[in-house]
Specification:
By secondary structure, the protein is α/β, with parallel strands linked by helices. It contains 1 helix and 7 strands. Helices cover 22% and strands 33% of the residues. The strands form 2 sheets. A 4-stranded mixed sheet has the order 1-3-5-4, with no helix packed on it. It has a 3-stranded mixed sheet with strand order 2-7-6, with no helix packed on it. It is globular and about 75 Å long. The termini are far apart.
């Protein structure tokens, strides 16, 4: 009977570890890649890293096109989004530049494709 009890304890421990590991990875945000398309699933979190350059410090974090991501929060260096619907979207991060300087040269684009949950 002792062997059976140890076996059950081992299975319970293994199951608990696998569930915890799955739950942690499911909520880990996907980092959006500059000037590339990032694919995520509905319900997943996406994280945008704000460059240390002070020209981008006023970026609000709100998306421009597609409405596939919902704004969750913003810290000094990151913006967190949640994928809310299937489709394509884009985040345009424009710098705060003095009048007359090239804004398009420093504008950053993050392209997103949201696919259905597996």
């Amino acid at each position: 009977m002792k062997v059976f009890g140890k076996y059950i304890l081992f299975l319970a421990l293994a199951l608990g570890c696998s569930i915890t590991s799955y739950a942690q990875s499911a909520d880990k945000p996907v980092t959006l890649v500059l000037e590339e398309r990032t694919t995520i699933h509905v319900g997943d979190f996406a994280e945008l890293q704000i460059p240390p350059d002070s020209r981008y410090s006023k970026f609000s974090g709100y998306t421009v096109g597609g409405n596939v991501l919902a704004f969750v929060s913003r810290s000094e260096r990151t913006v967190l989004y949640r994928a809310v619907q299937v489709g394509k979207g884009v985040i345009v991060m424009s710098p705060d530049v003095p009048e007359g300087e090239c804004i398009s040269c420093a504008t950053r684009h993050y392209f997103i494709t949201v696919v259905p949950q597996e």
